[in-house]
Amino acid sequence: MNNKQEKPNGYNHSDFKSRQQSKEKQSQSQLPQIKKPDPEFFSKIEKDFVKEAETVMLDLFKNSDQVVSTNQIRNILSLINNITLKINLSENKITPEIKNDIRYLIVKIYYACGKDENESKKSKPQNSKVKEFVDKSKIIDLILCIDDNVQKWTIFSKYVEALIAYHKYFGGKD
User: Fold this and answer.
1) Neighbour-count burial of 31, counting CB atoms closer than 10 A to its CB (0-12 exposed, 13-18 middle, 19+ buried)
2) CA–CA separation, 116 and 127 (whole Å)
3) What is the DSSP letter of 35?
């Protein structure tokens, strides 16, 4: 027996332990990252949301086999429009109730990402088209920057509308 503490049946405890640690590191790297506010990107959106939307959608169409459908983006926009209506009805203020609706929007977006990923796995093993759209457009990062600022909400909602417009322009399918 050598100094690796090898047992007569060929079992090597230190090799087993290193393989186990490697598996743990690999599974941790596959976990989704928690989104954080991205004020730097929000500043870009404030300066020119049209240009940023064009850049994001052009990148998605150039670098992806499958692009999110117009309907999938419109579902997100529908939720945004409902919140915008509530803001308008509350004298252009983001009330605590509306703030909760904005937080819930994040949950609904994550659900759409997970649902799309599960449906994609059934037909073809690939990454979620919705998740790719959400990650590249950074819409969750932007939502986290809004807090109770109505102007930021307005810019954000116009940015999402611009994403849909460019999606359609570049040939997005329903």
Assistant:
1) exposed
2) 9
3) P
- Distance, in Å, from the CA atom of 77 to the CA atom of 160, rounded to the nearest integer, reads 7
Look up the pTM and report it: 0.76
Gap between the terminal Cα atoms of the chain: 66
User: How deeply is 127 buried, as exposed, middle or buried, from its count of CB atoms within 10 A (0-12, 13-18, 19+)?
Assistant: middle
Segment 18-64, tens digit of pLDDT: 666 655 555 444 455 677 888 899 999 999 999 999 999 999 888 77
Question: Phi then psi for 2, rounded to 5 degrees?
Answer: -90, -175
131 Cβ contact list (under 8 Å, min separation 6): 113, 116, 117
